[in-house]
Amino acid sequence: MDLALLVATPVMGKPAWMWLFFLGIVLTILVLDLGVLHRKQREIGVRESMLLSAGYMGLAGLFGLYVLWQMGGNAAAEFYTGYLVEWSLSLDNVFVISLIFTYFHIPRIYQHRVLFWGIIGVIVMRGTMIFLGAALVREFDWVMYLFGAFLLLTGVKLLVSVDSQPDIANNPVLKITRRLFRVTDQLDGNHFFTKAAHPRTGQLVSYATPLFMALVMIEFVDLVFAVDSVPAIFAITDDPFIIYTSNIFAVLGLRSLYFALAAMIHRFHYLKYALALVLIFIGGKIFYTQIWGKLPPVISLSVTFGILAAGVAYSLYRTSREPAVVQDDAPDALPAGGRTQ
Prior knowledge:
The chain is mainly alpha-helical. It has helices at residues 3-8, 16-37, 46-71, 73-89, 91-103, 108-139, 143-160, 172-180, 210-234, 240-261, 271-291, 297-318; strands at residues 10-11, 14-15, 193-197, 204-208, 339-340. Strand 3 (193-197) and strand 4 form a beta hairpin.
């Protein structure tokens, strides 16, 4: 087949070259991130975290202009709304990730490595869920009612359980992983696996380090949060290209901002109420759209931005005099007789 025809072949409603262009951007970002900016293992400070996040936000803004050029104003408004919704919903993800790193005593110097490989999992998992969701919505209109009901229930649940925290120690995924792998409680630098002497045989065998356990838990958390975020963005648009690109740009930007947010996550405590209201608004919007017709994208963008801005402002006001919460960092350690794999 001719190359020009191949790249013009429609994939989920868009030419293949548009998908390749986006994936090329993401691949370039990841290569620069790991291979250039963070080639040497080091701790990422708040200032660098904010600068990286600003860069990612700038790229998302430019990509929105690209969407405007290629697909028109409504599509661009949907992209920016989707980006804002996904970014805001992922803020709660940052809080849980911080708890995971604290539970496993992962020093800040190694956290970027875990977050980087976590992004790879997000790119695959979100893509799979979005494409499956798009296929379901295309074949069965009533699926949107399920999405709407799920978002309404999730929003109400979040409103009444703002102060609840996940029980990481009793998480079933953690228990299953411990059954599948030999696990050590000691770190071995930035390695996910290490070799150490078996307590009975004395042979060198592989052990999963706390870094790997943290990665597994973060991937699981990403999957759980995707169950909320993917239906939310389907309420904004049914275009898989806009859904996926806004999703990935939001995750990339928020992961780079993690090191700044983790140091002041307590300042956004009341933002969870705003996130709950956003979920309720989006869930209600699905029912409105299915019964009366689609709301203009600019209304969705304005309402979402207004709710989140109010939540941020109120959180900063209420927590302005509260002390910062410092994350516990454990010293780097190697299992007795251990060496890296």
